[in-house]
Every structure is written in C-alpha cells, then in structure tokens.
Design a protein that fits this description.
This protein is α+β, with helices and mostly antiparallel strands and about 575 residues long. The chain has helices at about 1-25, 40-45, 215-225, 280-285, 325-335, 345-360, 365-385, 455-460, 480-495, 510-520, 540, 550-560, and strands spanning about 45-50, 55, 60-65, 90-95, 100-105, 115-125, 130-135, 140-145, 145-155, 160-170, 175-180, 190-195, 200, 205-210, 225-230, 240-245, 260-265, 270-275, 285-290, 300-305, 310-320, 400-405, 410-420, 430-435, 465-470, 505-510, 530. The strands form five sheets. Strands 1, 3, 4, 6, 8, 9, 11 and 14 form an eight-stranded antiparallel sheet that branches. Strands 2, 5, 7, 10, 12 and 13 form a six-stranded antiparallel sheet that branches.
C-alpha cells in the first residue's frame, strides 16, 4: 500500500514538473509572424500594390452566406479551395469599374441581407504605425489577425459603416477579415491606410492562390483593367459605339507598363485599334469604335488588351440599337395577325401594346431595353404556342403576367399571378393573397409592379396563390381602379380554383388606402384586410373641412373615404401596419 502511494506521489510530482516547464509556453502569446512565413510567398500568394488613390482593391472573398458567419468557421483563404463545405474562396482583382472600392456587384448576383467574407493581408514597404480605415456599404464585422475588432457595426444614413483602428504594419502583412452584409445593390468595401496628417499611404494587399495555380502578373494586370460599353452600350444606329477604358485597381507588385493597346473586333474584318499611356488609363480614357451598319438590335465586339505589346486579357462587349426594335416588333405583329381570332388571348393584345409603348420611348436605359427583350421572347413563345393549339400558360408556376380586355374602353389590362411550385403537383383549393401596389408615377401597362420575392415566398409557404392587380396604375384603387381589382380577383378565383372563403387583401401606401376603401365596399369578399401606411381620412390628409366643399363633391369623397365607411369594418378581420415616424401619411 505504501509503495502504491509512493508511486502515485512520484507521478504527481512529474506532472507538476512538466507543467511548470510547459505551462508558460502554452499560455504565452503566439509570436509567429502574421501572414505567410519565409519561402511561402511563391507560388501561393500574389502581392498587389494599392491603386492611384492608395486604396487596396484586391482580396479573396467567399459567400454568399445567409447569416453573419464567424471567420473561425471558415478555412484559411486559398483561392478556388473550399472555405466551408458549401463555398469556396475566390479572387477579386479590382478594376476601373469599381474605382477605389472592392464591389462584388459586377462579379456575381446576390440578394440584400446576404453576407460575404472578405479576406486579405495588408502591409507597407517600411514598418510604421498607421490607422487602418475600412468603409463597408452595409453592416460589417471586422477581424484583425483572427481577433474580432468590431461586431455588427450599424450604418449611417447613406448606408456606410465605418471602422478605424491604429496598428503596426510592415512588409510582413497583417491579416484582415471582414464579414459584410449586402446592402441594396452593393456588397462593397473601401480599404486604406492613413498616417497622421500625411493622409493615405501606399500599401499592398495579397490574394492567396492554390499552389501551382498562380496566374502570371500579365494576366492579373489584364484583370485590373476595366473595359466597358459606355452608357450601358445603348447607341444610335447612325453613330459610332464607344467604350471606356480605366485602370482603377492595383497592379501586381513589381509589374508596370508604359503603353496599352485596345483592339475591338466586330468580325468580318471590321477592326478598330487605339492606344493609351498608363496615365490615360488611370484617368479613365474613352475609346470611340466605328460600329458596322446593321439592322440587328444588338452588336457584339471582341476586345483585346495588350500591355507593352503583350496580350493581357480579352473582353466581350454588347451594344443595343433601340431604333432597330421597330422592325422586329412589326414581324411579331404580323405573326399575331395570323392567329385565329377565337384563339387570340387578351395576353397577346397586351404584349403587342406593351412593345409599342416601350418602342416609342424617347430616352432608353438598360432596364427598358431588357424589358423589350423579355417581351419579345414571351410574345414570340405565346404566339408560337397558340399557332400549335397549345395553352401557353399550362403548367407554368412562379410569376405570370395575365390580362383581360376591359369592357370600359376595350384596352388590355395586366395583372400578375404568382403560383407556388407545387400548384399542379398537389391540386387543391388554395388561399388567395391580393397585394395592391404603392403610387409610382412611371407605372404604365408596359412597366409596372412591385418587387415581391420575399412577400411571395412567405405566402407560398402556406400554399397560397398571390395576385398583384395593376389597378389602372395610379387611380388610388378607386372607381375604375377598384373595378380592376375586383375583376382580377374573380378571374383568378375562376382560373386557378382558389378558395373564395380565404381571400386576403393587402397593400402599402396608395395600395394601403385602396385596401381600406375596397375592404369597406366588399366586406363579404375578403377574409381579412391588411392596410399598411394607408390614408384613412381624405379631409384630414388634405387639411380641409367638409363644409368647404359643395355637397356633390362631399358625396363623392364620403363614398370612398374610409373614415366615413367605419360601420362596414365592424365584422372584418383587420391588421394595420404603420410606421410611427411616417410624416407623409
């Protein structure tokens, strides 16, 4: 027994002795230099210089993520290798299109509220104490050397979050990681180093690459040059198209060029060339290119970029010629004229009217061009189906634009139906959610409707069908606008077999006022109404007393004024949504 005690005591003493030696080492801060160690720079990383404004514009990024991930959840940034089981790190090499920022909007699609991780190393040629400045367009979480420095920074009135932190920076870069929320149409960072009154100082950033996969400096320099079709590539057929060339992003460290040549090739021997100096490229040069005469609605150009006589990259550019759409629309109208009058759906009449409205536009932007393109495709597909005696809407789910011919004036009036993916898989009477849009002065039958992805997705989880009436644009959903709502509700109930006992009316702003009015006029038609930010009293909103109006006008106002229709809400289910800071309604 005594021997066992002696053995146990010896073991404990040994453990304590080892602990005395090892514990200080285990608890001591890690002295390992930040960034890759000696000999690891090639070929695993590429070092970029800051751009002309001394901002870094290259990094590794990963995402999108639905939530704000922690940097510790992601593997180290090695481009084209997994960051998690579902995503990979990719390289962002800044170009002139993004100026001083790293902005993913030109790189890939994303939705507001998603998150991306940005990972880069930042340093300067001579060791010095600087202030790291990061502006993020959206909420952000910042890590330096894997330690959290800032969490969930709120944005200012313009959408920017700001982070500043002093630190020692040197040619051995420090790792900076940012988790950034997508905001509106951007996912953008602006990163630089400041030193006292000297302002921004030149810095370097690094993008990591898999071993053996590093591109050449010439290829990376080509990526840093933006070549884009000016004015969204929308040109007059009688004028030359032109492109814009800019060097906004940083070049690989040690790489430079004195001259750049840009060649645009239209095919069939039509080729135009122009040269720039480095300074002209930094300033954002403009390059006119003679486009060949064509009756097509689109032109394509293959663009080559050469630096110091060596090919550095290629681009493909696309140009639209709006005035040539008239000929294409005429062909569509001829095809539609050949349809059997009995088979010609109201939707065909609507498509032709929409095409003519857009083609008559004096000033085109990319949204109108893309809408024209989409209408031409849908009109062609619809006419083709009808010629083959097929229902063009059979089996369709998601967003579908339908139409009816108004008995009031014979015009085609649109409405949008959103069907769940399982609509035809599991047929049953479904609830119907009706959404009334707000006031938008530009709405026409050719371009209208709210963006409702999340709203529709929420209703589809319940199995419901969603209807968005046009309401004759901006009629306050009164008189003929109200008639449009009721008519489209009846059409959808009949066409898609929805449950008439489960029809719900919702709307915002002008649509919210429409909900109040229509819900009072047809209390038996809706199971519940949800007015949001809707006006409830005409007299109060206009700051006018009823006795200031003649009797005939008061009769008209009161027949549509929610405050005068209160008894009709007595047995209705109502949820009211309104912001307490609303100064408009």
């Amino acid at each position: 027994m005594k021997r066992r005690r002696l053995i146990a005591l010896a073991v404990i003493c040994t453990i304590c002795a080892v602990g005395v030696v090892l514990l200080p080492k285990l608890l001591a801060p890690d002295k390992t230099p930040f960034g890759p160690g000696p000999g690891a720079r090639e070929p695993d990383i590429v070092v970029f210089e800051s751009n002309a404004g001394n901002y870094i514009t290259s990094c590794a990024y990963s995402g999108p993520f639905d939530d704000a991930v922690k940097i510790g959840q992601l593997q180290p940034a090695v481009v084209d290798k997994p960051a998690t089981t579902a995503t990979v790190w990719r390289a962002y090499v800044g170009d002139g299109a993004s100026g001083n920022m790293m902005d993913l909007k030109d790189v890939l699609p994303f939705k507001e509220g998603q998150y991306f991780a940005f990972d880069f190393y930042i340093g300067v040629d001579q060791p010095r104490r600087c202030t790291l400045l990061i502006h993020g367009f959206g909420r952000m979480i910042v890590y330096i050397d894997d330690g959290k420095m800032l969490a969930d920074q709120q944005t200012d009135e313009y959408g920017w979050a700001k982070f500043e932190a002093p630190g020692d920076f040197s040619d051995m870069p420090r790792r900076v990681s940012v988790i950034l929320e997508c905001k509106y149409t951007h996912c953008a960072l602006k990163v630089g180093l400041l030193q006292g009154d000297k302002g921004a100082i030149p810095s370097t950033s690094t993008v990591l690459w898999p071993a053996g996969g590093k591109p050449t400096d010439l290829d990376l320099a080509g990526r840093a040059i933006s070549v884009s079709a000016a004015q969204d590539g929308i040109v007059d057929a009688k004028e030359d198209a032109f492109i814009e060339v800019a060097l906004g992003g940083g070049l690989p460290k040690g790489f430079d060029f004195s001259d750049m040549t840009v060649t645009a090739d239209w095919g069939a021997g039509a080729q135009v060339e122009n040269s720039f100096t480095r300074d002209e490229a930094v300033a954002g040069a403009r390059f006119y290119i003679a486009a060949p005469a064509t009756e097509a609605t689109r032109l394509y150009a293959k663009v080559k970029i050469a630096l110091n006589g060596n090919l550095a990259g290629t681009r493909s550019l696309q140009y639209y010629i709006p005035e040539n759409y008239g000929r294409v629309i005429t062909e569509v109208e001829k095809n539609a004229a050949g349809l059997d009058p009995k088979a010609k759906l109201p939707e065909v009449t609507l498509k032709l009217a929409q095409l003519r409205i857009l083609a008559a536009t004096k000033v085109f932007d990319l949204d109108k061009i893309l809408r024209l393109e989409a209408l031409l495709v849908s009109a062609g597909a619809m006419i083709g189906a009808l010629k083959e005696n097929r229902d063009p809407f059979k089996g369709m789910t998601g967003e579908i634009e339908r139409a009816y011919i108004s008995p009031a004036d014979g015009s085609p009036q649109p409405y949008k139906v959103y069907l769940p993916e399982d609509f035809y898989i599991t047929p049953r009477p479904r609830p119907l959610a009706v959404f009334l849009h707000g006031y938008v002065i530009e709405f026409t039958i050719a371009q209208w409707g709210e963006q409702m992805e999340e709203y529709v997705a929420g209703w589809h989880k319940t199995g419901a069908v969603v209807l968005q009436p046009f309401g004759r644009s901006n009629t306050d959903f009164q008189t003929i606008g109200e008639e449009d709502v009721i008519r489209t509700v009846d059409l959808v109930l009949a066409e898609y077999g929805c449950d008439p006992r489960k029809v719900y009316l919702e709307g915002v702003s002008m649509g919210g006022m429409g909900v109040w009015t229509i819900g009072a006029h047809y209390p038996d038609k809706f199971a519940a109404i949800v007015p949001m930010a809707g006006r409830t009293d005409y007299y109060y909103w206009h700051s006018i007393a009823a006795d200031e109006y003649p009797n005939f006008k008061n009769l008209l106002v009161r027949s549509w004024n929610p405050m005068n229709l209160l008894p009709n809400y007595r047995y209705q289910n109502i949820i009211i949504g309104h912001g307490k800071s609303d100064r408009t309604v």
